[in-house]
């Protein structure tokens, strides 16, 4: 079954009605070369795929997303957006007011047994000065409900905000030039038009050199100028990008011994957060004398259970994530092919959760009770229609994967969890994917309109993508997968240094404290890519000047 959202391309577009083998470029055969708009296929519509299509659209590309699912479920959890991600969203015109993120301005480390805070750091305003463009007040560090982030990205995918704007009736066909809201103002931005999203379209094959993709129903689409693989941690398409000598253990996500419980709770004046004297000091709003909003991290060192919570959705919802050792599974449920909680939505029983939390202060039981709730109570997200209707606690098994040496091949590039599978230790996987997408916006704009030159351009820019993204993504992944002790874990620094040459924090720096934040989260992907493009253009200019001089000399004209 397949359905399409926001059909932004002409009806003759073969991707709308694929025959057994069709070319996405054939619809432009009647257009002149000058009007040729390069086409990108984006495989997967998670944070990475949506962000990539926003970027490529801003770079003037025509984009089609192929998504396996029908978008029927949003995940009932929040995500932290550090400044490296929020500055991208801000420049893209993401609607922060609608998404209602809550600032992340503090971290408090507390004992699980007594709930006593043993260390804390406030960082109000962190990262707000990073980057340019967008609204300054939207940069910085945030906690946002995943459903709200996804909705905001989907809105940008379908309705890029461009100055000198397109009227609603014309927006599907008219090319629009102008300065995108929140842009640098120095670069011409050509809007590639609303992105086409095809749901229920599982891609099962990829030919990177030809830019061809194949669907589960046997149909094929060939001739894409760029294919962005964004099909998540358990990517089936990644092997097509890797060298043929790669073994499954080098690219398959491997289950770790850790899992995470996740659940959202309503944060209201009558909830146990504020009525229970042991919990109240942790959750009292800042305006009423409580701490600055941000991470609260309760740790039980004996069982190594870490409960991290932070507010989202205007402060009305509390996001909870409890990282713990995966309890032994009843026989037949574990195993590489079907690890427990491979998705996001495996329900877990209250008894199991309470067992894992046996080393915690008794007051936390009230929060677990609240998560399971009573029949007939309002379900999560009902207040704004963007929820999941979920009740109870879900478990998600955590996976890792070794670092890759390259994310590109031929006309294809892999981004997001498909490129780097990381533990949520530092709340960084989605943010680094948004960075990668922003990098693509800079690398793929100002493309040549002549197809052979375009092919060469794409190849060169994909090399730049690797140069920029391998160090950043692999550093972030290795840091996340090593756990909170990061550089103190044997071999991790050496491995990070294979890919990354920049500064590292001191070995004993705790997650999200100053030195740590500056290395992982103070990165402007636009600026870094612009610098790399400038260097490349200078090198190309110098090479062609010396070639011209050589020809002149040969011809005896000098
Ligand atoms: C517990 C937890 C907490 C986290 N917290 C944070 C945080 O606070 N901050 C942060 O930045 N990151 C966080 N992350 C990481 C972040 O959630 C991920 O990095 C991010 O969601 C990955 O997005 P993605 O688009 O790459 O992959 P996915 O979200 O997995 O999306 C992949 C998409 O591809 C589709 N698809 C799959 N196969 C195919 C196919 N063959 N054809 C077509 N479509 C296909 C899927 O249906 C899906 O829609 C956390 C992760 C976990 C597990």
UniProtKB/TrEMBL annotation:
Annotated GO MF terms: monooxygenase activity
Record keyword Oxidoreductase present: yes
Residue runs in coiled coils: none
Superkingdom of source: Eukaryota
Xref: InterPro entries: FAD-dep_Monooxygenase_BioMet, FAD/NAD-bd_sf
Compositional bias segments (type: Basic and acidic residues): 174-190
Spans annotated as Disordered: 1-32, 165-191, 321-345, 536-558
Compositional bias (Low complexity): 14-32
Keywords for this protein: Monooxygenase, Oxidoreductase
Similarity annotation: Belongs to the paxM FAD-dependent monooxygenase family.
Name of the protein in its database record: FAD/NAD(P)-binding domain-containing protein
